[in-house]
Amino acid sequence: MSAHAWMRGLVTAALADPAVARLAGRLTQRLVLVVDQAAVPVVDGTGEDSIVSAHAPASVWREMLVALPSPGRQSMGAAMRANCGFELRGEPVRIAQAIPLLELLIEAMRTAAAGPDAATASTGPTAPVPLERLESRYLRIDWPANDHCWIFEEAAGDPSQPVMLLLHTAGADSRQWHALMTDPELGRHWRLAAFDMPCHGRSRPSAGWRGEPWQLDTERYLACIRAWMRAAGHTRVAIAGCSMGAAIGLAFLARHPELALGAILLETPFRSPGRRTPMLDHPAVHGGRFGAAWVQALLSPHSPAAERRFATWIYSQAGPGVYEGDLAFYSDEFDAAHHVGAIDAGRTPLWLMTGNYDYSASPADSRRVADAIPGARFVEMNGLGHFPMTENPARLLEHFRPAAIELRRGV
Fold first, then answer.
1. Is the peptide bond preceding residue 144 cis, with omega within 30 degrees of 0?
2. How many beta carbons lie within 10 A of that of residue 164, not counting itself?
3. What is the mean pLDDT of residues 100-108?
4. pTM for the structure as a whole
5. Between 11 and 48, where is the model more confident?
6. How many CA atoms lie within 13 A of 156 on its CB side?
7. How far apart are CA 71 and CA 325, in angstroms?
8. How far apart are the first and last CA of the chain?
9. Calpha distance 193→136 (Å, rounded)
10. Can you name the residues that pair with 86 across neighbouring β-strands?
């Protein structure tokens, strides 16, 4: 069978998926996939002249559509970052409008290509998260300067144990950490606490907010953590952060070692340019769907499908402009070089753990951070993407539990 005929068959099968069909039926521009020089139509559009096309050699399409593609082939976003010959063509806004469909389409084509037996490998039910173990409250913090804010806090684990603060990723909230927060073994050693940043999840904007765009930076983020610690009555905490939360974790260890017990940081960048885009808050682009697709590309195909869907669902609910405003810190401002020289891993023990499917904070980047901090320990986690605590908490716990227990012994 020719590559063109094979692709046409997979597109037909993928369009039968209800989620794919819904987006395909509402896209106004034409959308085609191009294998070598042959076009495979996906959406005919509504008569507009605009067209978006996804181009790749047949060899790259085949690598992307195997049941468990290798890192750099798991998504359209990953393939574009890998410089493997995958290319999107069209007007920038039209491309952004098509990206949510394209990411879903590629995943559905992969399922069709794998066949029914392989397709069920990661689609079954996962172990339920015991959410009844969580305790929650609203807490008033003095943040930003000369203002206050009500933030949503969750906690689990033994209240007599030291506190480990779990920091969520850009554009998300503390639901990402539910599986780890409710883990009985972790809860025997730590009081696990997390809060939604102001304007995120269930937290409110500050009392003085007048509708101005959200924008985060290092100083505001550190001030928010300190304000939470004062309001909650904590003098020292361990930090567990992911992505943006890992970035500020490094800054926290460097700037406030007197407040830190140590840290376990996931998906830590050295720098991560290129993640911020105006399409995350564009009037012609569905922010919720685009944000979800922007992070779907970073997930590992080894992770259970239900958990991957939940990871993207959290992003679909972000407030307008919040994800982009967080990326002003994570993607534009943050540079680990400003912090690594001030971190003493003997005083505040540090573990860095990064999934091999992550291209926003790659294993090479996290290893570079670890190499710059004497005594820091680095683990590359095979089969995990950028959101390990959400997309595959069971696999993450194989690495996280031993580090957390060792850190607790030294406190």
1. yes
2. 27
3. 98
4. 0.96
5. 11
6. 20
7. 28
8. 62
9. 9
10. none
